[in-house]
Design brief:
- The protein has 153 residues and is of the alpha+beta class.
- It is built from six helices and four strands; from the N terminus they run H-E-H-H-H-H-E-E-H-E.
- A four-stranded antiparallel β-sheet has the order 2-3-1-4.
- Helix 3 (36-58) runs antiparallel to helix 4.
- The longest helix is centred in the N-terminal third of the chain and has 23 residues, at 36-58.
């Protein structure tokens, strides 16, 4: 339970203030998968997911952040549309301000980053996000699944 709480506190969801644009990033990635080094990088990224699972099982949470950083570097090779100068700058500054790594959610090009932040750096990280005018969300795990109800009128 302690490691679960630590992981929750270490994850910050951050809106990038940019959308994905009009480019079909999935189509670009698919076209590039036949390129040998990209195919190799995809395979490396799959292995990193197993590494993250193992770090979770061992409770070695900071390694998850480092692994997300490796994964992001590999993902950027899949297509020139995955990232851009704005996202690269945002990511670089996130690392400077306490993140160990992050993952752009979705196809790329914008949307949300999920950052792994060292818990004792989180306040500085949030201050940086606020100074940049970005929106962030804390992560809360839900173990019971979605709960719904009917409103009585």
């Amino acid at each position: 339970k302690e490691k679960e709480l630590e992981l929750e506190q270490s994850l910050v969801l951050c809106y990038t203030n940019s959308d994905h644009g009009d480019v079909d990033i999935h189509k670009s990635q698919k076209a590039n998968t036949s390129i040998k080094n990209i195919e190799t990088n995809i395979d490396k990224n799959v292995i990193l997911t197993y590494d993250i699972r193992n770090y979770l099982l061992k409770g070695d949470l900071n390694q998850i952040g480092h692994t997300l950083n490796k994964s992001w570097k590999l993902k950027k090779t899949y297509s020139k549309y995955i990232s851009n100068s704005k996202l690269d700058k945002l990511y670089k500054n996130a690392l400077i301000n306490g993140a160990l790594g992050g993952k752009l959610l979705g196809a790329g090009g914008g949307g949300f980053f999920l950052f792994y932040v060292i818990p004792n750096e989180k306040n500085n990280f949030i201050k940086w996000i606020n100074n940049e005018g970005m929106i962030y969300y804390n992560v809360n795990f839900e173990n019971q699944g979605m709960i719904s109800w009917t409103v009585r009128i």
